[in-house]
Amino acid sequence: MPLVHIDLIEGRNEEQLKGLVADVTAAIVKNTGAPAEHVHIVLNEMKKNNYSVAGKLKSDEA
To answer: Exposure pattern of 1-32 as b/e (b: 16+ CB <10 Å)?
Structure first.
């Protein structure tokens, strides 16, 4: 049972998230042979003020 965790900054709409999980599932099925019904994906959406790059919060970016 493949289990994938995806961390991303919030802001994508439901259609984009559906496309993401469909594409990731398809890639796992193609490359591992696992059946799609056994592929589990967990999306963790973070607020911009909970993520930093190079010592700067993403919420501080323009």
So the answer is: eeeeeeeeeeeeeeeeeeeeeeebbeebbeee
User: CA quadruple 26, 3, 54, 45: dihedral positive or negative?
Assistant: positive
> What is the per-residue pLDDT for 61?
87
Angle at 30 (CA atoms; ends 25, 33), nearest 5 degrees: 95
From the list 1, 2, 13, 26, the catalytic residue is 2
> Tens of pLDDT along 8-57?
999 999 999 999 999 999 999 999 999 999 999 999 999 999 999 999 99
Is 35 considered catalytic here? no
CB atoms near residue 39 (< 10 Å): 19
